[in-house]
Every structure is written in structure tokens, then in C-alpha cells.
Amino acid sequence: MKCEECEYFSRNAHGETMLHCDPSSTIKEPECLQKHQIARLDRLVRSYEAVLEMQRRLAPLQEKMMRILEREVGDIEEADRWKLGAVDDDEFVEDDPD
Known about the structure:
Layout: E1 9-11, E2 17-19, H1 30-79
Antiparallel strand pairs: 1-2
């Protein structure tokens, strides 16, 4: 039997195949389970590709944000360097009390 002939078959507004079978109760033929698995795998792949596309679009922004954050952290570390006692000997000359 073709999927198009089954009562659990439909097409969405975009013309994509929608299988409304329940693998545990409404599968009519062994091939139905295989088709159901392929359809689910296809949806999974499309979802993953959508995530990858979004990552590609966000990558330049993420890189820019990382550079800004690294610069900010560097500035903070530079400003707090005196707290750690990392002062050069040439910069600090103590007056001799004698």
C-alpha cells in the first residue's frame, strides 16, 4: 500500500508529507515503520541544518563579542595589576630615610 492511500497520511501547507502513524499501534505494514523512521530522520536533519544556519549567521557577532570581552578583561587585569603587587622596581622608588 502506498502512503498516499493511508488514512494517516496528509500534506501540510508547504506540500511536505506528514505521516500521523503511531509506530506502536497504527503501523499497517513493515514498510510503514521504515517510512516513518525516514520521515522522522528527515525532520531531524532539517532541524539540525536550521541550527547550523543560525550558527553561521551568529558566528561573526560572536567573534566580535569575544574580541570586545577579551579587550575588557585585559583592561580590567591591567587596572588591577597594582593590587597583585606587580609594580616594576623602576616605577617605585622609596625615599631613603637617612
